[in-house]
Amino acid sequence: MSFFQQAKENLGNTLIQLGGNLKQQSNSLLDADNEKSAITLLQRGTSKMSNMTMGGMSNMTNSSPHTSSTAACKTSMYWNWYTIDACFITKHWHIRSKSMFVGSIFGIIFMMMAMELVRRLQREFDRWCIRQSQYRSSLACHHSPESSFVHSSSNGFSWFTRVCFHFIRSCLYIIQFIVTYIAMLLAMYYNGYVILFLFCGTFLGFFLFAADTVNYSKPISSPSIDKIVHVSDEKDLSFKTNSQPSDV
Predict the structure, then answer these.
(1) Rounded (5°) CA angle 11-15-19
(2) For residue 214, what are the CA distances in angstroms to 169, 211, 245?
(3) Quick check: 82 and 98 in contact, CB under 8 A?
(4) Which residues is 154 bridged to in the sheet?
(5) pLDDT exceeds 50 at position 1
(6) Between 25 and 100, whose confidence is greater?
(7) In this structure, are residues 85 and 73 in contact, taking their beta carbons and an 8 Å threshold?
(8) For residues 158 and 182, is the Cβ–Cβ distance under 8 A?
(9) Key word Transport present in the record (predicted)?
(10) Residue 230 pLDDT more than 80?
(11) Which pTM was predicted?
């Protein structure tokens, strides 16, 4: 009996040792897995951080020219004489050199001259429409005197033609309005050179294209002047006859 008891005890001890060894091995395996998972998580985190930093650096490099260009623009709400790094209306109109500034000045002058040219075109178009209307009305009155009232009321043009003419006049007007609004926006930058050449362009445009507003070739002896002179002569003559003493 003692032999069997001793064998039983030895078998129990070996089983206990085997269980302890298995527990230690399983714990070591779990620790190794945890270490591997931690290492992989750490590697993933570092890769994500590196990607984020690289992306941020690329965004900073990509956005740095725009921020520097907008930051370098010189604008002021007071009178100034900025040339280099002056900006007008948009960030793309950024003066970076003297030649660019000179080109912008010439562009402003030509823009104001073009506005006066468009005004001249509108006046000439209005005169042409009036001449055509009078010509058509005179032809209609000559051919059919009984229908002169109808033709004169319709101005010699059809409804569609009048709408087309007025559309052209509206296009010329909106061009003048747009140029005037752009000139106002440019003047709001209070740049002395810009304001000065806005005035110069307007002066040159009016000097070249606005001479039609005064007709110097009109003769002095117009019917209105003759009428005024005739009335004044009659008044003077009546005054002299009334002032003379009567012969008794």
Answers:
(1) 170
(2) 22, 6, 49
(3) no
(4) none
(5) yes
(6) 100
(7) yes
(8) no
(9) yes
(10) no
(11) 0.57
